[in-house]
């Protein structure tokens, strides 16, 4: 009898889930943001089906406010994996008057993504979307299923989620519904970094310490960019930082850090005890921000 | 407050983190017995909370004007729940110490309790049952224990909570402990490993830190017990693997690759072993066991692998791989214990889809032998329908034979769910035999 460590157990479970998605759905898509969780997902997909090809199309909902490093990384990884990538732009939804650009100091396109995503799901007829959300990220995620059923409007209803028992995944859906599937539900941020260390995965450079021009606002640091509405009280500084999540440039806070390797990042995260969502300005707006956005079809 | 349990990772060697294992726990208790507080305490004292969570606890505690920390804000997550002050669904909580990662399924306790607990505990190896020291064993405690044993969890830890409210009385504790033992003996189940601990979640006694208020208690803390349990060994069971997909590959490197992907649910396998594919009954020997680029000599329960056979036998999603000498019985009739999980009741003669692993089949609810009220399973009530939270002994008729084991012998291949073909909802979970 072999004993497995926690990372091996999680990997085996995630691969099982990936294969269930491939087998149970006609048109699954893997939502790829270029962040560490979706990079982990992509790697798991490669391992789950090898020597066969990854049976999923990848899709990126591009807010137009991404870090250039993430976009470059995305394109390199897609080429390396040999999968198809669909990109849909929040800018297009804005131009079509489907959503309205936010204004003011905290303007962000993060919540506008939902509309672009739902339109893309409809455009291609995807019946399952694989995502890298984890239950440890936030309280309302803690109640998320591995297969989460959404209606036409992408809406999530906590009370209507199907019970999931043992390792049995029920992917049967009615016409017009689709499923969001979360293979790394049971991973924590630490598990993801440990896996990145174990598998020697490449990540976009912004995850590691680098020199950057910054905007100091409300006690946190944002990357300086043209997308940010700079106000009088903002202070422009320069420092060595890294990012813990790679969302939009407008709402992802930088950490002052000189951690330039995966091991150092793991150590520093553990020692700092701050959650990664603490680094997302949009989630701090209110205590239940994410739950509300999820009800509206947000990933 | 001692917070030294979860020492920072930089004091741990890189190799150590790859030696950690994983233990899944489920918690049970009636409303207000202190589940949320206990989980919060466990995380707080093992230093597993983030700064934001610690600040939130302090803020809420101050807002409510409490003198002890209010941990419930950590687990009572959704808006609807906070408004109503209840927990509506199974929440998953993660924490790790130096040697182990824990996943806690916190199931709320009220009307839908049975459904939530069965769901939350289905992947657990340990159940923590809370008992309020002031109240002792309640009807619900019987239900909680019954469900933990319907699932046949290997360890049940009874936490006698709120000991601070009974002046840490040894007599009170001993009386409740005696009642617990009596209850355990009154059920027909084979005895799990039982632990009984006097704790106060609110004050932190015997959760992570040994209490000075219970000098008469020589046993271990909850945290110590959770670290001493070894994850269950599914390796000594018969080999079972559901085929998830058949993969065909033809390229320069793999001129003609054909393999069955799946996760081994029980038992072991090695190169050269003979395997039988069910339902076809055709056999062949194992040519290759693959995990990504690695070709293995052998594989074990829990491994996601791709198995290639030496002969071209027919198999597809829905096939089960077994060893010829350990085949499960083929049957078109199934005796099982069902837990009904759906708001819509089931009626005699109702038709459903049964899913076991990746196998699906049509079934009919042929007979309801009797309902088993979990607080008093001896009662055996007659009924012609199954309502939410009912537990019943039933007979199912199948369109095609299924190859399931008795849950007692093989958990992984002894369970199934029922799906309502109209709504596609998961409406029941079943345990074969039991
Ligand atoms: N005095 C005392 N109160 C407790 C203890 N554990 C929980 N409580 C209180 O009991 C109430 C219900 O606790 P909670 O954790 O929300 O219970 P749950 O419904 O099982 O999750 C809260 O007011 C807690 O502060 C304990 O050990 N001692
Ligand atoms: Mg609670």
TrEMBL record, chain A:
| Name of the protein this chain belongs to | Sulfate adenylyltransferase subunit 2
* EC number(s) recorded for this UniProt protein: 2.7.7.4
Any one GO MF annotation of this record: ATP binding
Q: Which family does it belong to?
A: Belongs to the PAPS reductase family. CysD subfamily.
Indicate the enzyme's highest-level EC class. transferase
The alphabetized UniProt keywords are:
ATP-binding, Nucleotide-binding, Nucleotidyltransferase, Transferase
Q: Residues annotated as region Disordered?
A: 268-299
Q: Decide whether keyword Transferase is in the record.
A: yes
**A biological process from GO:** sulfate assimilation
| Domain Phosphoadenosine phosphosulphate reductase: residue ranges | 28-253
Supply the NCBIfam families for this chain: CysD, PRK05253.1
Under InterPro entries, the record lists: PAPS_reduct_dom, Rossmann-like_a/b/a_fold, SO4_adenylTrfase_ssu, Sulfate_adenylyltrnsfr_sub2
Is Ribosomal protein tagged as a keyword?
no
């Amino acid at each position: 009898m072999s004993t497995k460590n926690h990372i091996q157990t999680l990997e085996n479970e995630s691969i099982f889930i990936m294969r269930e998605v491939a087998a149970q759905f006609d048109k699954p898509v893997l939502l790829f943001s270029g962040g560490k969780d979706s990079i982990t997902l992509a790697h798991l997909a490669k391992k789950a089906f090898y020597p066969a090809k990854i049976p999923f199309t990848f899709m990126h909902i591009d807010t137009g406010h991404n870090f250039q490093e993430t976009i470059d990384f995305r394109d390199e990884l897609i080429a390396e994996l040999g999968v198809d990538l669909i990109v849909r732009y929040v800018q297009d939804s804005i131009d079509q008057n489907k959503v309205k650009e936010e204004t003011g100091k905290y303007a962000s396109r993060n919540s506008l993504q939902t509309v672009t995503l739902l339109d893309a799901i409809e455009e291609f007829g995807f019946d399952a979307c694989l995502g890298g959300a984890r239950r440890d990220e936030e309280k309302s995620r803690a109640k998320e299923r591995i297969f989460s059923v959404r209606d036409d409007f992408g809406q999530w209803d906590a009370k209507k989620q199907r019970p999931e028992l043992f390792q049995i995944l029920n992917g049967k859906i009615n016409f017009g519904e689709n499923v969001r599937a979360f293979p790394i539900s049971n991973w924590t941020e630490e598990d993801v970094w440990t896996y990145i260390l174990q598998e020697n995965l490449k990540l976009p450079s912004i995850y590691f310490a680098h020199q950057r021009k910054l905007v100091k606002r409300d006690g946190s640091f944002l990357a300086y960019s043209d997308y940010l509405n700079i106000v009088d009280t903002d202070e422009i500084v320069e420092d060595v930082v890294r990012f813990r999540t790679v969302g939009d440039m407008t709402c992802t806070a930088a950490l002052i850090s000189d951690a330039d390797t995966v091991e150092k990042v793991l150590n520093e995260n553990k020692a700092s005890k701050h959650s990664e969502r603490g680094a997302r300005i949009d989630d701090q707006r209110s205590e239940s921000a994410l739950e509300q956005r999820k009800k509206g079809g947000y990933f | 407050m001692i917070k030294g349990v979860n020492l920072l990772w930089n004091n741990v060697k890189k190799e150590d983190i790859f030696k950690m294992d994983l233990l899944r726990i489920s918690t049970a208790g009636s409303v207000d017995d202190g589940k949320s507080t206990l989980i919060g305490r466990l995380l707080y004292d093992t230093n597993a909370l983030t700064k934001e969570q610690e600040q939130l606890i302090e803020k809420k505690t101050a807002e409510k004007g409490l003198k002890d920390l209010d941990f419930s804000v950590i687990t009572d997550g959704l808006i609807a729940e906070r408004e109503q002050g209840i927990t509506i669904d199974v929440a998953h909580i993660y924490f790790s110490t130096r040697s182990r990662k824990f996943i806690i399924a916190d199931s709320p306790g009220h009307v839908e309790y049975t459904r939530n607990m069965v769901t939350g505990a289905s992947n657990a190896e340990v159940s923590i049952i809370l008992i309020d020291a002031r109240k002792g064993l309640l009807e619900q405690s019987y239900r909680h224990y019954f469900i933990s044993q319907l699932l046949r969890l290997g360890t049940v830890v009874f936490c006698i909570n709120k000991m601070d409210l009974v002046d840490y009385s040894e007599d009170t504790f001993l009386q409740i402990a005696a009642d617990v033992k009596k209850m355990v003996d009154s059920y027909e189940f084979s005895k799990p490993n039982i632990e009984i601990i006097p704790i106060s979640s609110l004050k932190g006694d015997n959760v992570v830190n040994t209490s000075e208020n219970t000098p008469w208690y020589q046993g271990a803390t909850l945290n110590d017990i959770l670290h001493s349990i070894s994850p269950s060994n599914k390796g000594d069971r018969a080999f079972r693997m559901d085929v998830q997909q058949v993969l065909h590959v033809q390229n320069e490197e793999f001129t003609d690759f054909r393999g069955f992907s799946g996760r081994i649910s029980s038992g072991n396998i090695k190169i050269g072993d003979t395997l039988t594919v069910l339902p076809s009954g055709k056999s062949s020997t194992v040519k290759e066991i693959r995990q990504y680029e690695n070709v293995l000599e052998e594989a074990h329960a829990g491994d996601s692998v791709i198995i290639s056979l030496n002969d071209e036998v027919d198999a597809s999603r829905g096939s089960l791989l077994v060893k010829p000498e350990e085949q499960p019985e083929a049957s078109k009739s199934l005796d099982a214990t069902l837990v009904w999980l759906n708001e819509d009741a089931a009626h005699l003669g109702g038709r459903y889809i049964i899913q076991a692993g990746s196998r699906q089949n049509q079934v009919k609810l042929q007979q309801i032998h009797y309902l088993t009220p979990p607080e008093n399973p001896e009662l055996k009530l007659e009924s012609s329908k199954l309502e939410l939270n009912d537990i019943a002994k039933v007979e199912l008729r199948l369109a095609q034979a299924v190859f399931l084991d008795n849950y007692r012998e093989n958990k992984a291949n002894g369970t199934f769910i029922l799906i309502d073909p109209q709504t596609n909802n998961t409406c029941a979970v079943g345990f074969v035999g039991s």
